[in-house]
Amino acid sequence: MSWLVPLPVILPLLGAGLTLALFGRARLQKFVAVTTLAAVLGVSVALLLAVRDGPLVLEIGDWAGRGDPAVGIVVVADRLSALMLTVSSAVTLCVLLYSHAQGDDEETTAKRIGPVSIFHPTYLILTAGVANAFVSGDLFNIYVGFEVLLAASYVLLTLGGTAERIRAGAVYVVVAVTSSLLFLIGIAVAYGATGTLNLAQMGERMADVDPGVRLLIGMLLLVAFGIKAAIFPLAFWLPDSYPTAPAPVTAVFAGLLTKVGVYAIIRTRALLFPAGGLDDVLMWMALATMIVGILGAVAQDDIKRLLSFTLISHIGFMVFGVALATSDAWSAAIYYVVHHITVQTALFLVAGLVERYGGTTSLTRLGGMAKAAPVIAVLFFVPAINLAGIPPLSGFVGKVGLLEAGAQVGTPVAYVLIGGSVVTSLLTLYAMVKAWNKAFWQPAPRPLPARRVPLGMMWPAAALVVASLGLTVAAGPLYSYTTQTAIDLSERDPYVDAVLPDPYRAAVPPGTGEP
Fold first, then answer.
1. Which of 35, 138, 396, 413 could cross-link 197 (Cys pair, CB 3.0–4.6 Å)?
2. How many CB atoms lie under 10 A from the CB of residue 177?
3. How far apart are CA 280 and CA 260, in angstroms?
4. Per-residue pLDDT tens digits for 16-60
5. Among 288, 456, 465, 472, which Cα is nearest to 391's?
6. Residue 398 contacts by C-beta under 8 Å, 6 or more apart in sequence?
7. Quick check: helix, strand or coil at residue 76?
8. What pLDDT, on a 0 to 100 scale, did the predictor assign at position 451?
9. pLDDT at residue number 354
């Protein structure tokens, strides 16, 4: 089954090439793109089932037969990467279908989606970059995945070529390039210190690295991934970049791109720095991310900007779980990542429905949509209260898991984080209720355009809303899965044993390295 591992990367790249060859033939491009992402989803589900018996590894180029399996490119699917692949492929497929319905309208195509012939290959390349980051077994190949994301995301961010989008895209590129440069420096230092970029082999050798060098490597990687994940104070770029993009682009960015950074933090923390060392710094960054992000959300009068700030804020919950560094905390953090990808993407898609119907996302210009567009009102309300953590929804389940893990750790900073999490949840509820009242309940200050919303835009958003409710219904099995995932991450051995056969294992005790 190891041959399945690279397919989530290969299939979108092949689909991107085919859609480029079909330039100008929109219907065929749509068919190819949907078929490709449906196939990726099928492969991801197959991997999710297959990795229950252990990680799947494919060595590109058969370097194991030439002396060292860690020399060539290694792709690995374990419980964490398979889960992330499944969720991300389902979300990207829903967003693509949403974009097709939005792009069927000529005006929308010109003003929001941009050139459709460019959109499809770029979107598939973005999907390949996300998948590559998830299955990469070496640090440099994760960097390659990030660079693929950067190239594709810049094109998607500036579709339509408006001055506002170009300006936001320029800021985004400068910040992303800075992050990539820091990541590349971290890779160089790590290679110089360990003599390898294979994550499993680096984890084995990191214990012998000088503590000061380990600290430098950990700090460089944390800053690079922190920018990608939009952790405070490295998140200043996000609120001005995401709201300017078309609704489908904003949705997939908000749902996935920051989570790739979170995934990289989890992966490197578990494999390279099992004893921590920067966990206290991460915890204070998590607290600042929660509070600053949600205070920014409360101050907004535009739905997209409000959601962008809540996106930043709730990254803090995931970082909180990572920093606690216990199996229970990591389990809750992974569950919360799955929850947040689904709910945040759904909210941004619904924001696109609001904009399509009312002509704006400004809360000062909207109103009365609960009566005029009740379906849209329900589609907004459900994920909004889910994001706030109202019981018994998945947001509540994930937050309770994080709070319980924090209480088990029992340190003063953990209790501070627990208090910050509760305050953030209450302020999230306030921000969501304010948006609901202004956009849906209160009378509109002026007549709304009340334009027709295509059914094809409604049902992908509704599918993600239903999926978010499914996370509540299936919370037990999913939480069991994330618990086993967290145990595997903590033990490291299942991953390392799968990647490195015994003759190539370094003779150092696991779990002794710390940055």
1. 138
2. 12
3. 22
4. 999 999 887 888 989 999 999 999 999 999 999 999 888 999 888
5. 472
6. 317, 332, 335, 336, 339, 389
7. strand
8. 82
9. 93
pLDDT at 511 (0 to 100): 40
| 374 residue type, one letter | P
pLDDT confidence of residue 425: 95
What is the residue type of 473? Answer: V
Nearest to 488 by CA among 80, 77, 180, 44: 80
Q: Is 365 strand, coil or helix?
A: coil
Taking the C-alpha atoms of residue 325 and residue 275, their distance in angstroms, rounded to an integer, is: 9
Tell me whether residue 66 is exposed, middle or buried, using C-beta atoms within 10 angstroms of its C-beta: 0 to 12, 13 to 18, 19 or more: exposed
Contacts of 379 (CB under 8 A, 6+ apart): 346, 350, 353, 458, 461, 462, 465
Mean pLDDT, the chain, rounded, equals 88
136-145 pLDDT, tens digit per residue, is 999 999 999 9
Q: Please give the span between the terminal C-alpha atoms of the chain, in angstroms, as a whole number.
A: 35
Regarding predicted confidence, which is higher, 115 or 237? Answer: 237
Whole-number percent of the chain with pLDDT over 90: 61
Token couple for 41:
């989803």
CB-neighbour burial class of residue 44 (10 A; exposed 0-12, middle 13-18, buried 19+) = buried
Residues 72, 136: contact at Cβ < 8 Å? no
CA distance 398 to 483: 12
Structure tokens at 61: 């180029």
Please count the CA atoms within 13 angstroms of the CA of 511 that sit on its side-chain side: 6
Neighbours of 502 (CB within 10 A): 6
